[in-house]
Design goal:
This protein is of the alpha+beta class and 286 residues long. The protein has 2 domains: 149 residues, 2-Layer Sandwich (Ribosomal Protein S5, domain 2); 122 residues, 2-Layer Sandwich (Alpha-Beta Plaits), CATH 3.30.70.890. It is 38% helix and 28% strand. The chain has 10 helices and 11 strands. Strands 1, 2, 3, 4, 5, 6 and 8 form a 7-stranded mixed β-sheet that branches. Helix 5 crosses helix 8. The radius of gyration is 19 Å and the shape is globular.
Length: 286
């Protein structure tokens, strides 16, 4: 069985105050067509292998997913999982969470596990806070600790993105710690209001107002700790005349377009040594 595991982009991300070592947040997330490829086969013993230019820990979201499913449903079967990575770890694109969600859904089918979406989402939340959104695999609003997801009423109008991915991995923990030091906590109620405005502009396909409405609370902490990210952002904005934004906790920078031709044209200017560039679109949903 071969499956595709997509990336995500945060169009809006507001983070609230610290509660029991975690931050509540609200985010408008788009699922985009940059994919890891996963192959799953039945096997005599369970093995997870990454074909990756980046080092992936032996204990990871995929091994956690398999162990959790086997324990929860008393599964005695084993699988061999091979993941060909294109989404770099520590890039703010959710690659590890997407891998976990993709394997979770595939194994539920392969092993004939009888469960509903509610239970599936609870299991996903146990693996990681970003895993549930990849169960939905469509543009959505995530709230709380990543466990509340809303897709209804959110337009599926496709957007096109230029992604610029750095050669370094960004530590999410370090970014949140820096945010706390800076006192950068935001107002989640205001965040909801601003997301609704952003959604209206997406529906109207008003790219200038979309750009003005995109926001990420974690941008300042990221740029504080990784100066190169800020320097590259300023350089490519001058070269392209487009605004660039930070996805997740960094370090991917992205710009947004309504058509691929314009995105491809601007991508020609994104020749930054060691940074990877891609033009991707919102994945199509029914």
């Amino acid at each position: 069985m071969k499956i595709l595991s997509p990336a995500k982009v945060n169009l809006f991300l507001e983070v609230g105050h610290l509660e029991k070592c975690l931050h509540r947040l609200i985010s408008l997330v788009d699922i985009v067509g940059l994919y890891d490829t996963i192959e799953i086969k039945e096997a005599a013993s369970t093995e997870v292998k990454f074909l990756s230019e980046w080092k992936i820990p032996d204990e990871n979201t995929v091994t956690k997913t398999i162990s959790l499913l086997k324990e929860r449903f008393s599964i005695k079967k084993d699988v061999s999982v091979t993941i060909r990575k294109r989404i770099p770890p520590g890039s703010g694109l959710g690659g590890g969470s997407s891998n976990a969600a993709s394997v979770l859904m595939a194994l539920v089918g392969l092993w004939g596990i009888r469960t509903d979406e509610g239970q599936l989402m609870k299991i996903a939340s146990m693996i990681g806070s970003d895993v549930p959104l990849f169960i939905k695999r469509k543009r959505c609003i995530i709230e709380g600790f990543g466990d509340k997801i809303t897709c209804k009423g959110i337009p599926s109008i496709p957007l096109v993105y230029c992604l610029l991915i750095p050669p370094f991995a960004v530590s999410t923990g370090a970014i949140y710690k820096e945010m706390d030091i800076l006192g950068e906590e935001g107002d989640l109620t205001e965040g909801i209001r601003r997301i609704k405005i952003l959604i209206e502009y997406i529906m109207k396909e008003d790219i200038k107002r979309i750009e003005r409405s995109i926001f990420n609370r974690l941008e300042s902490p990221y740029f504080n700790l990784w100066k190169e990210g800020k320097e590259v952002k300023e350089r490519i904005e001058r070269k392209t005349g487009k605004k660039f934004f930070v996805s997740g906790s960094g370090g991917t920078l992205f710009s947004v377009f309504l058509n691929r031709a314009e995105a491809e044209e601007k991508a020609r200017f994104l020749d930054i040594p060691d940074w990877k560039r891609y033009v991707v679109e919102s994945i199509k949903t029914s």
